[in-house]
Specification:
This protein is α/β, with parallel strands linked by helices. Helices cover 28% and strands 19% of the residues.
Amino acid sequence: MVRPLHFHPNPETAADNAFQSRACRQPPDETARLAYAEVSHAAARLEAAGVRVHLFDDDGARGTPDSVFPNNWFSTHAGGHVALYPMFAPNRRRERRSDIIEDLKSTYRVQDVIDYSGLEHDGMFLEGTGAMVLDHVARIAYTAQSNRANPVALERFCTHFNFEPMAFATADAQGQACYHTNVMLCVGTDFALGGFYLIADTQRRVAVRERLRESGRELIELDAQQIGDFAGNALELSGRGGERLLALSERACASLSAAQKAVIERSATLLPLAVPTIELAGGSVRCMLAGIHLARR
């Protein structure tokens, strides 16, 4: 996790992020203060639940208003592999930090770092586990097509990391594509939360649902209001004693029906976190978490 210093909704990402607030009601300093506190409290709650958290601070010197969303610029993978990603917005490219990667290397066994960031020079972008929702068991990279998920970059990642790409077009009620897959899909061990109605092609929608069911997941269908409340932007984590936890925002959790929560709670404990200020930037709890799939030294 990265705790921001000068957080604010990023003007360079506003054009294609329908979840992003166009204006903040409070002064910028107050917005930044609230965001800093929300990340601090979220990290503390995760640690209290037994999740190992590595919390880094953004010193504000690089002009990175979205630094709170590190899952977009790097991911880690079993076997000691790390990927660095090409970012669509120029100011988001400055979020990549060598000190974070070096810290990972000192704590975990890292065999190699595959850097795709050079694809930015060719106008090709793939924003990590925002652009892709990875099924690490079935080895499928579910990907909503957008200008942040270039098909060539996706193929390169999938070839290197042994995933099958499963891309699909999306459109909301205004015809706008989902800027990131992880705002519409969450794949847990025994369930998948999805705004499947957003998948534009009917046959492709059926195929995505079927692949998830084939891998043993019970599907939890999210409607437009729940997607807008970030119910799809959740991440299953391992807590104390290997307990499964589903980290999501309080807003997302409140949007779920009792029946939907019951399906989740058969497999994982709901862990709602209060991040209303962070959500002004168009991302929520899953975006704030860069998962660690590496072995400790």
